[in-house]
Amino acid sequence: MRAALIFLLLTGGCATVEPGAAARSSFYLGATAIRIPQTRGQVSAASVSTLGVGWDDGPFIGWRSGNWISADPANCQLLIVIRSAAETANAVQIINALEGQSPCIVDYTNSLRR
Length: 114
What we know:
114 residues, 3-stranded mixed sheet
């Protein structure tokens, strides 16, 4: 246990995620990967994986992984989340059916063109 703690302290970094206007803040100390997906509209999203200590809806020690999306209902009345290539094809059909409306989109595959 002591060796693992020393390893984390020597190799670790620090990251803070502030998702725009949302009232949420997270802090990570350790080996952390943060992935920000492609978005359209007034929506914030992140995928975070960390090994260390931090604060993400409460304190934690060890491995933590999660995704979060924050959108204002006044500006995002329809939210489309894309997590796979199959979902991309379905999302394109939905977006085309909306005929000019602008839904908020979170694309974890980064496959939609702007």
